[in-house]
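Exercise 7b. Backbone tokens:
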């Protein structure tokens, strides 16, 4: 009861701090607009950019509407195939957000479980799991993602495009779980020494119930901050892989694919094809990281 009351007090203090943070409010508003645009893309997008029957090559490489030769039908212009850039951004952002969120959720689940087990068990099991974390930290996330993608292409040469999203999520999550595991392990080693854990043991609670019912809620603060920051990192990794041509298939391009396509036409003067996807990627990751920084400050009593 005391631990629950303490958590409620902390939550109210965190909420009050966030409500007074202009940066958090602005970043939340920007992210909310992007989420609405991506989530309701079929209803809000002026055109369906991936419907080949609706494309017209006569509309290819039109500039934005406010420039000469631009048209209101294509506010942000068109690409080399006549696709509306604004509509492509909405649909591409959906894919980038889905990959980032799924990779983060998978990383959080795996990292929290490993951290709880390592922090509670100790001994040889703890040492083995932490050495595994050290090994995973020695590999750059982009390199691991390229390796997993290459293995997926070799094992599934025909059905790889259908499983591209899952392979991409797995590739990003393979290194993303390590910070959660190390953070949760340290917090678990502190929490298991407290009185409420001893009281739960005396009442006959099982080890699993103590970990997931009592310890886990008290170590979720840092995990929430890490998860918020990793969403932006996962989106950047996915965009990098798509820019390199090993991400999602071209039939359903993400922001990275759109930037790669636009980059090929930059020297021709068609800057809008690459600049607008890059700006959306920047706004998305910046707003997510800003929210994560605000959460970190709010959850730190000294900074609050």
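Sequence design result:
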């Amino acid at each position: 009861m005391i631990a629950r009351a303490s958590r409620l007090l902390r939550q109210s203090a965190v909420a009050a701090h966030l409500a007074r943070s202009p940066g958090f409010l602005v970043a939340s508003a920007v992210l909310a607009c992007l989420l609405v645009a991506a989530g309701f893309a079929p209803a809000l997008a002026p055109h369906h950019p991936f419907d080949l029957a609706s494309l017209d090559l006569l509309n290819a490489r039109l500039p934005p509407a406010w420039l000469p030769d631009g048209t209101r039908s294509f506010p942000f212009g068109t690409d080399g195939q006549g696709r509306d850039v604004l509509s492509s951004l909405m649909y591409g952002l959906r894919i980038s957000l889905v990959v980032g969120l799924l990779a983060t959720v998978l990383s959080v689940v795996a990292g929290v479980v490993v951290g709880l087990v390592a922090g509670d068990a100790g001994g040889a099991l703890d040492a083995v799991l932490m050495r595994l974390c050290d090994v995973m930290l020695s590999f750059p996330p982009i390199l691991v993602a390229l390796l997993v993608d290459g293995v997926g292409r070799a094992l599934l040469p025909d059905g790889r495009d259908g499983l591209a999203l899952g392979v991409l999520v797995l590739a990003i999550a393979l290194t993303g779980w390590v910070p959660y595991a190390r953070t949760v392990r340290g917090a678990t080693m502190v929490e298991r020494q407290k009185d409420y854990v001893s009281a739960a043991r005396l009442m006959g609670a099982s080890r699993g119930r103590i970990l997931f019912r009592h310890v886990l809620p008290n170590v979720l603060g840092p995990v929430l901050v890490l998860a918020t920051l990793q969403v932006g990192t996962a989106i950047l990794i996915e965009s990098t892989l798509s820019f390199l041509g090993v991400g999602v298939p071209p039939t359903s391009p993400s922001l990275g694919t759109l930037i790669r396509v636009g980059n090929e036409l930059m020297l021709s003067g068609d800057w809008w094809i690459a600049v607008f996807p890059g700006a959306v990627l920047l706004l998305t990751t910046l707003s997510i990281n800003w929210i994560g920084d605000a959460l970190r400050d709010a959850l730190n009593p000294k900074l609050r």
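Instructor comment: The mean pLDDT is 81. The chain has 13 helices and no strands.
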